[in-house]
Amino acid sequence: MYWKMSNRYIDDVYNLAKSFSYAFRGFRFAVDNERNMRIHLTMTILVIEFAVLYQVKAYEYMILCLLFGLVLTAEMINTAIEALVNLNTSGYDTLARIAKDVAAGAVLVLAVTSAVVGVLIFGNLEKLQACGSYLLEHPVLILLAVAELVIAWLFIFRWNSRRAVRRKHRDK
């Protein structure tokens, strides 16, 4: 009996690990193939860094984290809907366009809502001025921010170009 329970436990752990690997594969697919996913990830990182500089409160971090998760999840659901629509349509289809547009619109609504919440959290002018003064007093941070923005631009707009070429060659 002990041996059977042990094997079942190992099988359960193995199946759980496989499940996580599929989830990470899906996340990686969304990052590799969806520019908007890379934009959302980049904004998540930039906002977290600014939140540290701005010294937001713990409950504001919780709100930000919840919104980050919701936006990234909505973008991944949008990607899944697009893939399913593409799987089931060979040419132009009005219903396919509606499904894709509505899914993209849902992501847009959530992203705009998140931006509004961000303005409410980061809207204190005195704290914004203090952050600006702190950056001006530490020019190295300005250089790091510029370098980070260049890396962010490359990540958003140039990330997929080499992978897409490899994928095309694999499909042949």
Report on this model:
One of its GO terms (biological process) is phospholipid biosynthetic process. The chain is an all-alpha fold. The protein is globular. The chain starts with a helix and ends with a helix. The C terminus is likely disordered.
Characterize this entry briefly.
By secondary structure, the protein is mainly α. The chain has one domain: Helix Hairpins, CATH 1.10.287.3610. Helix content is 90%, strand content 0%.
> What does the radius of gyration come to?
21 Å
Question: Number of helix segments?
Answer: 7
Number of domains: 1
Show unreliable segments: 165-172
CATH architecture: Orthogonal Bundle
Mean pLDDT: 90
CATH fold name, please? Helix Hairpins
**How large is the share of residues in beta strands?**
under 5%
The helix/strand class is mainly alpha
Fraction of residues in helix? over 70%
H/E series, N to C? HHHHHHH
The best one-word shape is: globular
First-residue to last-residue Cα separation: 51 Å
* Number of strand elements: 0
Provide the CATH top-level class. Answer: Mainly Alpha
How would a textbook summarize the main sheet?
A: none
Cofactor: Mg(2+)
Active site: 75
InterPro entries: DAGK (IPR000829), DAGK_sf (IPR036945), UDPK (IPR033717)
Family: Belongs to the bacterial diacylglycerol kinase family.
